[in-house]
Write a structure and sequence with these properties.
9 helices, mainly alpha, disordered C terminus
């Protein structure tokens, strides 16, 4: 049943291990890889960044987007980075680049891209994914593997920072945007300026 958690995945580790067996989130999916897993992910009541990453691993981009929209300004760098990853998978490459640029100096970004590759390596990766989608050029398997590795590094960072236990009240993770960010978001949702499509 799609609305009930799958009893095979009662813990963070059990569900995470299973999510890593699914096809890598790389290109825009038509729908979640396994729609019934949405309930299992939500039932764990993880920190919102971990829940977002799990939804991304399941290619459930609407659920992930709902969560990251509450974590789109500092100090929620983990949520901001996941927002960029989400837009990369959606095929919104310019928006992904903007989110990556916003977090390029954060510890979570460094955990995924290191000092050696850094922002240049991340942007080159986005460009390679874009080339695959738009021109059919590139090694899909290699890019898919890199996509999963990036997400795994964010998960491990968030797991170390927030733990894998239940978070009954996630409101502490939400960030109140500045007036400028609020107005920009309002314009994007109401059909004004911006990259996002809803």
């Amino acid at each position: 049943m799609a609305n009930r958690p799958d009893p095979r995945f009662p813990t963070f580790s059990a569900l995470y291990t299973h999510l890593l067996t699914l096809p890598a989130p790389l290109l825009p999916p038509g729908r979640a890889t396994s729609p019934p897993l949405t309930a299992s992910i939500s039932a764990l009541s993880l920190h919102p960044t971990l829940e977002t990453a799990f939804h991304i691993l399941n290619a459930d981009l609407p659920s992930a987007h709902f969560l990251v929209r509450h974590m789109q300004s500092p100090p929620a760098y983990e949520g901001m980075f996941l927002h960029g990853i989400l837009h990369r998978i959606e095929g919104d490459y310019d928006n992904a680049r903007a989110w990556y640029d916003n977090v390029k100096d954060s510890e979570v970004f460094a955990s995924a891209w290191g000092e050696r590759e850094g922002k240049d390596g991340a942007l080159e990766f986005i460009g390679r994914v874009e080339s695959l989608k738009k021109k059919g050029q590139g090694n899909k398997e290699e890019l898919a593997e890199r996509s999963v590795e990036e997400i795994k590094k964010v998960v491990e960072w968030c797991r170390g920072k927030f733990g894998e236990g239940r978070v009954e009240d996630a409101s502490g993770a939400w960030v109140r945007p500045s007036e400028e960010e609020r107005k920009m978001g309002e314009d994007m949702v109401s059909g004004g300026e911006g990259f996002r499509k809803f």
